[in-house]
Design goal:
Elements lengths: L1 H32 L2 H21 L6 H14 L2 H13 L4 H11 L2 H11 L4 H16 L4 H14 L1 H19 L2
Helix pairs in contact: 1-4, 1-5, 2-3, 2-4
Length: 179
């Protein structure tokens, strides 16, 4: 009976470890497929640029203090640690079958097209096109009727609250991931 109990414990533990390893692998592929890994890798540099911009406008700090703050933040932010934390949280207690289904959906042509459209503004060409679109709107603003329709659509779909909730959740996750 001791051998059976040991075998049962080992079998259950090994099954749990295997499922967790499978979840870790699938979560990594999901994040990679949707471009989240690139975003997480770029996050520390983007954050440092934003902080540098803020610090450069702060007249109350000396250049030495600004450099020390920037250096301290740069030392505490790790893309690898951020990725590991995000992957760990997403894979904890996951269902490998459901996650594999999600991965399959994310690899579909429709989702890949959405991904390409979302990524386009991050390129030099996409950024230039976006600037051109902004300039066109400045020159030829939408009519009041169109503005009302856009506001009605935003209200009906609760877009503003969804965006704010997403930003808050993402910010909390990033802060937790950075320790």
């Amino acid at each position: 009976t001791m051998r059976r109990a040991s075998f049962l414990f080992f079998f259950l533990f090994a099954g749990s470890v295997f499922a967790q390893e499978q979840c870790n692998s699938i979560v990594h592929r999901v994040l990679e497929t949707y471009g989240c890994l690139d975003t997480l890798r770029a996050y520390p540099e983007q954050l440092l640029r934003q902080i540098h911009g803020q610090l450069s406008r702060d007249a109350s700090l000396s250049d030495t203090e600004k450099a020390r703050i920037s250096h301290g933040i740069a030392q505490s932010i790790s893309a690898d640690r951020l990725i590991k934390t995000v992957e760990g949280r997403l894979s904890t207690g996951c269902n490998p079958v459901e996650l594999q289904g999600l991965l399959k959906e994310m690899q579909s042509p429709l989702v890949q097209k959405m991904r390409a459209l979302e990524a386009a503004p991050q390129t030099a060409e996409g950024s230039a096109k976006l600037e051109g679109d902004y300039a066109a709107i400045e020159k030829n603003p939408p009519s009041e009727t169109r503005k009302k329709l856009i506001r009605a659509l935003m209200d009906a779909t609760d877009t503003t609250n969804v965006v704010v909730d997403t930003i808050v959740a993402t910010s909390r996750g990033m802060v937790e991931a950075m320790g």
